[in-house]
Amino acid sequence: MAPGQYSTDPKQHTLSPIVTGATVIGMKYKDGVILAADTLASYGSEARYKDVCRLKKVGEYTLLGGGGELSDFQYLSDQLDEMADEDWLNEDGCFMGPKEYSSYIGRVMYNRRSKFNPLYNQFVVVGKKKDEPAHLMYVDHQGTAFEENFVATGFGMHLGIPLLRNSWRADMSLDEAKALATKCLEVCFYRDCRAYCKIHIGVCNGTSVDISAPIPLNHFWGHGAWTEKRLEDDDPTATW
Amino acid sequence: MVEVEEPQDYLDVFQSQRGGFSFENCKRNAYLAAQANIKPPTAMKSGTTICGIQLKDAVILAADTRATEGPMVADKNCEKLHYISKNVFCAGAGTAADLQHTCEMMESQMELLRMATGTEPRVCTVVRRLSSMLFKYQGYIGCALVLGGVDVTGPHLYQIYPHGSTDKLPFTTMGSGSLAAMAIMEAEYNENLSIEDGKKLVAKAIRAGIFNDLGSGGNVDVCVITKETGGAILRNYEKPNERKFKAQHAAFPKGTTPILKEEIMKLVSVEEDVVMRD
Question: Which PROSITE patterns match (chain B) (predicted)?
């Protein structure tokens, strides 16, 4: 290879994700919308970066949560920051809200997949602009985009959506919503190999967008069936 | 031409039935796949939600009632809870025929064992026999089982996979709806539940599978096994999918269609003098 040449192969597009984030859970509550995600970025099956914030504040009123390839999430975050700066420079008395950002992200994702160079992510774009109704949108690496009252990405789709469908109500208080999101991520931690027991919760209530400090999750491993001594042998942990 | 080995005498038959693994069809399968593009049958997906929990002195199993044939619902209200013995029951996901026959085989073996030893069969015996058999067939028998029962050593709950691996667990779910049911279990299980709360929990888990998984549906069957009463299957414990509107046809009264002619023909002649042949 010549000095300064990066590779002998011609230009390549993203083939598969390398450093990935797992589940993101979003749900509307009485006064706005919340987003929750754990703090892990996995390198394949290795739990490589355990203190990553996968939630990002975009502009004044919007929150972006990203699962999937972390570098693509960071790239899009930078692009959205530039857009937010231009929005501020316009000085036209209004700022872009979650509807605008989620629509833009949806088009970007579909455009990239149509060029066979996708951003390998599952995004949840949430926000509440002052007195407008709360907004929650799911955007995929394939360009799938839809609005909903609650969504979950990745494994959260299989483990969290049943819990959300049972317990979600439109008039939930902030504490109830946080408890439900925490419960879903707890179950994900038990049953998803790529999940983690520390999470961030972000809240958009129309006036401010706050991302919490990392919250540790509770987990219980002391089931009697695992710890009891059985009649025949002294080894308490054998299952076969 | 593919060579076919004919057994020569009784020793060859004995040799072929000795047991252990026989790999003589592997060459044939490879030949068929390469030359005639004939692939072996693929495993059928188990569109089911089954679950079980172990409580202080009881085991509760539950299952949905949908049997699927590809994308079609073959049976809206089939029975997935099988009787093995008075104190051992199992819920099965996978190929319906395999499950039925495997469970019937276990039932008969346990009854023979009970009669031979005069004692109640233990759960671990069934588990051992099932896992040995399934491993022998290398996963080709598509039985994924949640097996539970109460014997002299207490309540036990096992999970058995088609390849023969077993797990002993406090709560478990299997089938395509297992993730949805597991979410409910992980959120709400604890070992100090009463039997009534346990029944509600397994029913809730199966309902999560029914409504969140396309391969599961229909009603909820529950089976409670306790030391005193043995096991009892509560068929259709919950019916969350009752048909709301059914087309009503009033029965036509007799005589609506007029009878024009009546003719009775004798097609069978009965012979009284039957001679037994030697």
Answer: PROTEASOME_BETA_1, PROTEASOME_BETA_2
Torsions phi, psi of B110, nearest 5? -70, -35
Q: Are B29 and B38 in contact (CB under 8 A)?
A: no
Was domain B50-238 assigned CATH 3.60.20.10? yes
Interface of chain B against chain A, CB under 8 Å?
Answer: 54, 131, 153-154, 157, 165-170, 179-184, 186-187, 191, 204, 208, 211-212
Note the ipTM here: 0.84
Query: In a 3-state reduction of DSSP, which class is residue B24?
Result: helix
Per-residue tokens: B269: 């002649």
Contacts of A162 in chain B (CB under 8 A): 180-181, 183-184, 208, 211-212
Domain boundaries, chain B: 1-42, 50-238
* More confident of the two residues B46 and A58: A58
Domain boundaries, chain A: 19-220
Cβ–Cβ < 8 Å for B95, B67:
no
pTM for this predicted structure: 0.80
Whether residue A240 has pLDDT greater than 70 = no
- Is B48 noted as a catalytic residue in this protein? yes
**Of B167, B179, B183, Cβ closest to residue A239:** B167
Quick one: CATH architecture of A19-220?
A: 4-Layer Sandwich (3.60)
- Rounded CA-CA distance B129/B108 in Å is 12
Q: Are B33 and B199 in contact (CB under 8 A)?
A: no
Q: Judge: A162–B153 Cβ closer than 8 Å, yes or no.
A: no
Q: What is the pLDDT of residues B58-97, one digit of tens each?
A: 999 999 999 888 888 888 999 999 999 999 999 999 888 8
For position B250, what pLDDT does the model report?
81
Residue to test with chain A: of B123, B156, B160, B168, most A Cβ within 10 A: B168
Q: How far is CA B216 from the centre of its chain?
A: 15
> In terms of CA atoms, which chain A residue is nearest residue B166?
A240
With contact defined as beta carbons under 8 Å apart, do B90 and B60 qualify? Answer: no
Please give the average per-residue pLDDT across B235-240, as a whole number: 93
The 10 Å Cβ neighbour count of residue B264 is 4
CA–CA distance, A27 with A153 (Å, rounded to integer): 12
Task: Give the nearest partner residue to A162 out of B131, B154, B212, using CB atoms.
Answer: B212
Q: Using one digit for the tens of pLDDT, what is the confidence trace for B136-186?
A: 999 999 899 999 999 998 999 999 999 999 999 999 999 999 999 999 999
A-B Cβ pairs (cutoff 8 Å, strict): 62
